[in-house]
Amino acid sequence: MKAIDLKNYLLSTGLFRPDNNCLMVEVDGDKIYNRIPVRYKQNSEVSDRYRYNLIDIKIYVEKYGKQERCVDFIIAGVNIYATHVLNELDFPTLVKELDRTLGSIPKFQKWKTKELRNFKINNII
What we know:
This protein is an alpha+beta fold. It has helices at about 5-15, 45-50, 90-100, 105-125; strands spanning about 15-30, 30-40, 55-60, 70-75, 80-85.
């Protein structure tokens, strides 16, 4: 998955907003995407209603090793419950990680059902 895909998926849920303080540039072939957010936080309407589901998502570059872009899923700003390499993250894995904490929110369940159906249809074609 590319950072632009992650951005589009997260914003399409309606549950996240970008934290515009940190931005990155992504080059995909001959396309250049400017101003891709690196951090995503829950919308205030979601965090007010479901306080126990405070989740942040952060893209960062490893300091050691292969220095790949990774994605952290963080609960309440402290606990990292999952980390994935961005290039290896696929849509079903993203849904699984979000479902761990957002699974009880009806808006997320509706989004998950629709997007997983679309993903499966696109893989058949």
